[in-house]
Each structure stands twice: as C-alpha cells, then as structure tokens.
Structure prediction request, 40 residues.
Amino acid sequence: MKQELKHQIVIIGGGAAGVTVASQLLAANSNLEVKILFVV
Prediction:
C-alpha cells in the first residue's frame, strides 16, 4: 500500500524564483510538508 505524500507550499511574493526554490525543496524533501514564505 502506497503512502500518500502531502505537500503544502505557500509562496508569497516569490515569483519565478520562489517556484524554483519550492521545486528544489520538494525534490530534496519529497516526503515532507514544505511551507515557504517569501516576503518582498
């Protein structure tokens, strides 16, 4: 039985750079919940 992986990403004012960082963090921590806050 496969475990469902839950990813929660919150990006505020990150733009394309924020999306890139979020993708990299998800790739590195594929089994963790990731919350990212970018304040501009």
In short: The mean pLDDT is 64. The two ends are 42 Å apart (CA to CA). Residues 15-28 form the longest helix (14 residues).
